[in-house]
Amino acid sequence: MSERANFDLVVIGAGPGGETAALTGARLGKRVAVVEKAPFVGGAAVNTGTLPSKTLRETALALSGYRSRDLHGVDLSLRRNITVDDALRHERTIKAAHRDQIRGLLDRYGVTVVHGTARFAGPNVIQVAGDGDASERELVADKVVIATGSVPVRPPGFPFEHTRVHDSDELLELHEMPRSLAVVGAGVIGSEYACAFAALGVETYLIDGRNELLPFLDADLSAALEASMRRLGVRFVWGERVTSCDAPDVGDVRLELSSGQTLTVDHVLICSGRVSRAGDLNLEAAGLRAAHKGRIGVNEYFQTEVPHVYAVGDVIGFPALASTSAEQGRAAVAHAFGTPLAGPVAPVLPTGIYTIPEISAAGEGEEELRAKGVEYVTGRAGYAEVARGKIIGDEYGFLKLLFRRSDLKLLGAHVIGELASEVVHIGVMALMTGAGADLLLGTCFNHPTLGELYKLATHDALLRMGRERNDPTALTTAPRVSG
Ligand SMILES: Cc1cc2nc3c(=O)[nH]c(=O)nc-3n(C[C@H](O)[C@H](O)[C@H](O)COP(=O)(O)OP(=O)(O)OC[C@H]3O[C@@H](n4cnc5c(N)ncnc54)[C@H](O)[C@@H]3O)c2cc1C
Ligand SMILES: NC(=O)c1ccc[n+]([C@@H]2O[C@H](COP(=O)([O-])OP(=O)(O)OC[C@H]3O[C@@H](n4cnc5c(N)ncnc54)[C@H](O)[C@@H]3O)[C@@H](O)[C@H]2O)c1
Fold it and tell me: How is the cofactor bound (predicted)?
C-alpha cells in the first residue's frame, strides 16, 4: 500500500531551481514537499558542479601561490607535490557544509523533504519510489514544479568505466592527481577545469572542434582569456575532434584526433555538453512530453503545456546556470500562487565564468548591438590603472562598458580579472535601473577598490566620444540619462 499526502506544491528536484521554488512556496504559507532522488539536497550546484568546481579552483589558486606570484618576488607555492587529498579536501568540506545549510533552511520553513525518485502517476499525482524500498509514497499536488536538472553528455567512443576517463560528475572521485590531462570540450566546464588543473601544475591540453574560446563572450574578453590561459600553461588543441580513445589498464591513454595526430595523457576529462534529465518522470501521465535534448518546453512564466505544472532550471535548457535556475524557481512559484511578488524573471541575468582569470558579463555585447543597429560607445579601464588592481597584482584584467551613444545609458558591462563576477554587479544594478554615465560618474566608490574601474571606464567612453567629435568638452556636454 502506498502512503498518500496532499500538498499545495510539490517540487521535483532539490537543486537551486527546486530549492528556491520550495522555499518561495513555503514563504507564501503553502504546504510544500520537495522530492529528491539523491541522498542529499543541493543538486548539481552543490554536489557535482558549481561549488565543487569553484572550490577546486580556489584550492588551486591557494596551493599554487598563483595570486602572489608577481607580488612579493618570492614563490609561495607549496614545495611538495600536491596530492588529490590536498586538492579535494576543501571541496568536500564546503560541499557537506552547504548541503546541511540548504537542508536546514528547508526544515526551518517546514518544507517536507522526501528522498526517492519521483514520477507522474497523473497530472496532480507524483509517485515516489525509494531506492531498494518496496513502499511507495503518493503526493497529490495543486501545483507541481519540475526542477530535475541535467547530466553530462557521454559521447560514444570513450570508455567511461575506465578509472582515468571521466565526465565532470565523476571527476570529483579522482583517486590520484593526474600527471597530464586532456580536457575534451572547451565550453565553460572544460575551460574552468582546464584552468584549475593547469594552476595545480598538471600538464593540461584543451581540445575542441571549434577554433575560438567561448565564442558567446565579447571578442576582446575571449582573446584576453585565451592569452591568460596560455600563460597559465593550458595547451589549446583547436579544430580537432577525438576520433578514438584507447585506455589501457596500465600506461597512458591514447587519443586519436581528427587530423590524424595522437595525444597521450594520463587522464581524460570529457566536457562536451549537458542534457536535461526528465527521463524518469513518466511525463506522459501528466500530459507532457520532452523535446530536443530532453528539454521541457515552458512559457514566459515557466508554465508547461499543462498549466499547473511548471518547469525551471537546466531541464528547460539555456541559460542553465545555478543563479538563473534559482531565479526561475522563484518566478514560477510566485506566478503559480498569483502573489504580489509575482513578476517576470529578472531582466538582467549576469554570467560568471570561473576560469583563471575570472570573467563576468551582463547586458548586451558589441555584436548584439551591431546586429540591432544600436549606436554605442565603448569605455575601457584596466585593473592596472586603479590602485586596487595594482595592489592585487592583476596586470591583465579590464572592465569594458558599452553605452548607448545618444544618451550614455549603460547597455553592457564585461569584466575579466580577479573577482570579475563580483565587480560586474555594479553594472548589473546600473542596468537594472536603466542608469548610465551620470550615475557612474556621480557615485563615490571606496578607495582603493575595483569599483573605481567603472568611473575610469566611463571617463574613457566620454573621452573617445570627445575625440571622435574633436570636442574636448565632451566630458561636460555629453548627453546623460537620469539615473
Ligand atoms: C562543473 C559545473 C560547474 C558549474 N558552474 C556553475 C557556476 O559557476 N555558476 C552557475 O551559475 N552555474 C554553474 N553550473 C550550472 C549549475 O550547476 C546548474 O545550472 C544548476 O545546478 C541547475 O539547477 P537545477 O535546479 O535546474 O538542477 P540540478 O542542480 O541538476 O538539480 C536537480 C536535482 O533533481 C534531482 N532529480 C532528478 N530527477 C529526479 C527525479 N525523477 N526525482 C527526484 N529527484 C530528481 C537530482 O538528483 C538533482 O539533485 C555548473 C555546472 C557544472 C556541471
Ligand atoms: N560558470 C558557469 O556559469 C558555468 C560553469 C560550468 C558549467 N556551466 C553550465 O554547464 C553547461 C554545460 O557546459 P559544457 O562546457 O559541458 O558544455 P558546452 O556545450 O558549453 O561546451 C561543450 C564544448 O565541447 C565541444 N565539443 C563537443 N563534443 C566534442 C568532441 N567530440 N571533440 C571536441 N570538442 C567537442 C563543443 O564544441 C563545445 O565547445 C553550460 O552550458 C553552462 O550552462 C556554467
Answer: Binds 1 FAD per subunit.
Instruction: Domain of residue 415: give its range.
Output: 357-470
Global pTM reads 0.94
Assess if residue 347 is contained within a domain. Answer: no
Same domain, 365 and 463: yes
Beta-carbon contacts of 41 under 8 Å, excluding residues fewer than 6 positions away, are 14, 19, 34, 99, 102, 103, 106, 113
Local confidence pLDDT in tens for the 483 residues of the chain: 468 999 999 999 999 999 999 999 999 999 999 999 999 999 999 999 999 999 999 999 988 877 766 666 666 665 457 788 888 889 999 999 999 999 999 999 999 999 999 999 999 999 999 765 556 899 999 999 999 999 999 999 999 999 999 999 999 888 899 999 999 999 999 999 999 999 999 999 999 999 999 999 999 999 999 999 999 999 999 999 999 999 999 999 999 999 999 999 999 999 999 999 999 999 999 999 988 778 999 999 999 999 999 999 999 999 999 999 999 999 999 999 988 666 678 999 999 999 999 999 999 999 999 999 999 999 999 999 999 999 999 999 999 999 999 999 999 999 999 999 999 999 999 999 999 999 999 999 999 999 999 999 999 999 999 888 776 565 555 555 543
Ligand 2 atom 39: the closest Cα is on which residue? 187
User: From the CA of 322, how far away is ligand 1's center (Å)?
Assistant: 7
Question: Residue 440 corresponds to which amino acid?
Answer: L
| Residue 314 counted as an annotated binding residue | yes
**Amino acid letter, residue 437:** A
Q: Are strands 32-36 and 3-12 parallel, antiparallel or unpaired?
A: parallel
Based on the domain organization, do 9 and 127 belong to the same domain? yes
Nearest CA to ligand 2 atom 32: 241
335 is annotated as an active-site residue? no
